[in-house]
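User: Hey, my collaborator sent me this sequence without any context and asked if I could get a structure. I don't really work with proteins. Can you help?
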Amino acid sequence: MSKAFKGEDASEAPIVVPPRAPLPPGVENYVTARGLAALKAEHERLLVERARADAAGGEDGDRPRTLATLTERIAAVEDRLATARLVDPASQPQDEVRFGATVTVVAEGGEERRYRIVGVDEADVAHGRIAFVAPLARALLGKHAGDTAVFRTPRGEEELEVVRVHYEAEA
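Assistant: No problem. I've predicted the 3D structure and written it out in structure-token form, which is a compact way to encode the shape of the chain:
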């Protein structure tokens, strides 16, 4: 039943902050330079947002909830920053798919795709960035140009031929 029907104030509801993408237990929080910069920028943006909300003062009934939500989000980002392990692309074997690699593959139907293996927090499948813990990334890790990677999809197993592995320089 809706809180409106029960006469409860929405501000009494528990604060729910969506969790960040999880890291499997015991797995390092690897990040690219781009990913680390994004985490730092997110942290700074949240600090500014919380300072603004705190300075607003007034009689805003949602203010305590807003501050609590921002504090939880800041803590989550700080946890990721504290455990972040920056991986230098130059430290990777340049001919092998490892963390930070950009991999060009050809699917069974001849379609060419490009993926970059990145940290959990910067994964964005729509832009070809896949988390190193994702099934596709795990299938590609350790492969070289000419190798075939097989991974399960909802449609069954899919074979991808690795045609290029390279590492982009990061600023």
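In plain terms: The radius of gyration is 21 Å. You can pass these tokens on to your collaborator as they are.
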